[in-house]
Design a protein that fits this description.
The chain contains 5 helices and 13 strands. The chain has helices at about 25-30, 80-95, 135-140, 170-175, 200-205; strands spanning about 5, 10-15, 40-45, 55-60, 65-70, 70-75, 100-110, 115-120, 125, 155-160, 160-170, 190, 215-220.
Length: about 220
Amino acid sequence: MSASKVGGSPELRVLDQASLPEPMASDYRASPRPYALGAFDKLRIDVVGLPELSLEEVQADAGGNISVPLAGTIQIGGMTADEVSQEVASRLRTAHVRDPKVAVNLRETNSQVVTIEGEVDRPGQYPALGNMTLLSLVAKAEGTSEFARLDEVIIFRTVNNQRYAALYNLAAIRRGAYVDPAVFANDVVVVGDSPQRRLFRDLLQVVPLITTPLVIALQSGNN
């Protein structure tokens, strides 16, 4: 992988490749902290001796809420499985269940998200499920706004502690000029004019028309 500085800028190194590096397993490896539950995660909740209060599978909604018999609606976003079990047990005691013993296990995690910002109709965070691509993410965000700069779409990604950014032309992808790039959990996608454009200011002056993806490596600490 070769690279060159842009206009002498120490912040940008253009990479001689047409796509961003894919994340490594270590980029998703759990930290020493317990896993924090989030939106769309699936749980199994067992209340010992009370199968009618147990749930083989319950999925958190977009707001990170689940509904448990007698315990009601619980906001689990940011909680650990142990904390959820304690909360369920506490609520069941309040509902006059004697000495409830509750076990909560994570069945499936869907809270890994990709973020899309800028000139789309519904910016925000979306679950990074399946083989998501840039176009499918834009579709989930209900498309670009009327005056969106389609030639200024940036994907930010961190791989092995190295921060990368790639500049895409959404219209060119739709025309089939080049491959619709994959997006992964923790990616940040910015559509249209934004403060992030300053990263490419020097480069766009040199190459104003982007006909192929442009991938750069950022110095540590730059966003």
